[in-house]
């Protein structure tokens, strides 16, 4: 029995020694860079002021009376917060798929109370959010678009109401399973405005197009979630292209007064995204925080082992913050203003590193959850450069600017606008699968 007692004693000493060593490694791993990144990224992003239009997009799939929308959102938000409080425990017990595929997935009280609004398939010719020539795409297909919009009259009204709101900020806690707005609904007003012009009311369509562009530029400048930022950037592109097309239909008519807000100069707020990156960081960090909260008071042996030897909330948050921080540092912002997107530090899986042995699970998850976020800033710079060129082209079509001055008026740091085959050509950094690698805008024939 003595050998057994000695073996247990040795095992206990080794276990304690290992746990102590892990704590030392965690102290080493959490250095000045991690401390600075956490302080930078965990600044609270204030909510925008004014009326919110989130509810109009969030519940577009349910037939809810307008007078009950605020109450429906409040009920759903309260139920979600209660449900989300147990997210960490579900992740530990059932795995990460529990948040999206498990039967325990959040059951919205709104879904249980209000009937589903019938789904309507959009015609293949319908314009998307980032359609550069919506008028050209719809021409000849007016009847199909009209029938679709009539069937979608309820959703179209909700989308219009959302655009009249001060902001579309998402009130749900930032987390990987948080509900998001049905932004695709915003394509409905784009198509409706284009159809109005094709039906002959160019003046009325121009007023609405300017309201659309002004609203989307307002939303783009706010510190919403990263997905919000990208959607609004795409729709700014589409709305600017639509307004340019309308201007070509009536170049001699002065722009309506409400177009001033839509056609103002591009400012830094049109493409800087530190607030959105802070919210994206909060979403990523919510996974670690939920798991930490689920194990902090647990004496389950597996939870205890995870907390003291395998994962560490502070380190995982710090490693995530380090990845986002370049977009929010003063030198990073200065570079973006000059057209240079800072490189985010890579986070590669390294089983021989101090970071790995300080928190193996956190290290692996951090390596997985570290996409190249710089690409989103690149796209925002593309969209700002595109907007500058669209606004200059609108002025040139209306005779307010000579065509020869457009490249200089639309100049963006890091971009080179050229004239090719009767077009202004703007090369793009991050063209997606649905877009060309460059923006081409035809020069008015009278000014070539």
Characterise the protein shown here.
A hairpin with a 2-residue loop joins strand 1 and strand 2 (423-427). This protein has a 3-stranded antiparallel β-sheet, with helices on one face. Helix 5 (87-94) crosses helix 13, helix 8 packs across helix 10 (187-198) and helix 10 (187-198) packs antiparallel against helix 11. It starts with a helix and ends in a 6-residue tail after the last strand. With 448 residues, the chain is mainly alpha-helical. It contains 20 helices and 3 strands. The protein has helices at 2-29, 32-41, 54-58, 69-84, 87-94, 109-113, 134-138, 142-151, 153-163, 187-198, 202-220, 226-249, 274-295, 301-310, 313-324, 330-337, 354-358, 360-368, 374-397, 406-409, and strands at 418-420, 423-427, 438-442. The longest helix has 28 residues, at 2-29. Helix content is 55%, strand content 3%.
Provide a brief overview of the structure.
55% of the residues lie in helices and 3% in strands.
- What gyration radius follows from the Cα positions, in whole Å? 26 Å
Strand content bin: under 5%
Largest sheet: spatial strand order: 1-2-3
The structural class is: mainly alpha
Number of strands: 3
Unreliable stretches: 97-103
Main β-sheet, in a few words? Answer: 3 strands, antiparallel
Nearest-integer average pLDDT:
86
Shape: globular
Secondary-structure element sequence? HHHHHHHHHHHHHHHHHHHHEEE
> What gap, in angstroms, lies between the N and C termini?
99 Å
* Helix count, DSSP H or I runs of 4 or more residues: 20
